[in-house]
Amino acid sequence: MTVPDTPPSQDTPAGSREAAIALGQTMKQLHRYISSHVMQGLQAELTDLDLSFSQMTALHQLRATPGLTVTELSARTHLSLPAASHLVERLVQRGLADRQENPDNRREKRLSLSARGQAVLAGMDSAFVNAYIRTFAQLSPQSLQAAHDSLAALLTDLEAQQPAPCPDPQETP
């Protein structure tokens, strides 16, 4: 698996660079606690839904950036164009994604999640949140509040620098 392994750039202020590295290491440890719960449930859910990991990744990309073309989705999922095209065809046939003609270029199709695709991802999101809840429920309320406050501050800073990758449907009024 190729995951970008890029530490903060050398232009990053020294204090921020070291703090980011320390936080990254801490998040890795936290991820290890959570991932065992999530991956068990995720594998069962993918099997039940008859979804491949690539299809799940494509659904997440379509949620994050509605209106992608097959070519753009191919690049984001690291699939060849023919493989991405086949994947999209399967998602459309199964009612998980929709294709619409691009009004600016009639030869191009824009992709989006269908209502069923959104429901599938909402179920995955719920399972992910429940894994966090099960893991954290055994901790003290004071530790949980301190973690919440710190993470909320980080998210506020991140959102000020870059928009969220996709809206959280639970946060929309």
TrEMBL record:
Transmembrane segments: none annotated. One of its GO terms (molecular function) is DNA-binding transcription factor activity. This is MarR family transcriptional regulator. GO terms for biological process: response to stress. Residues 20-160 form the HTH marR-type domain. SMART domains: HTH_MARR. Gene3D superfamilies: Winged helix-like DNA-binding domain superfamily/Winged helix DNA-binding domain.
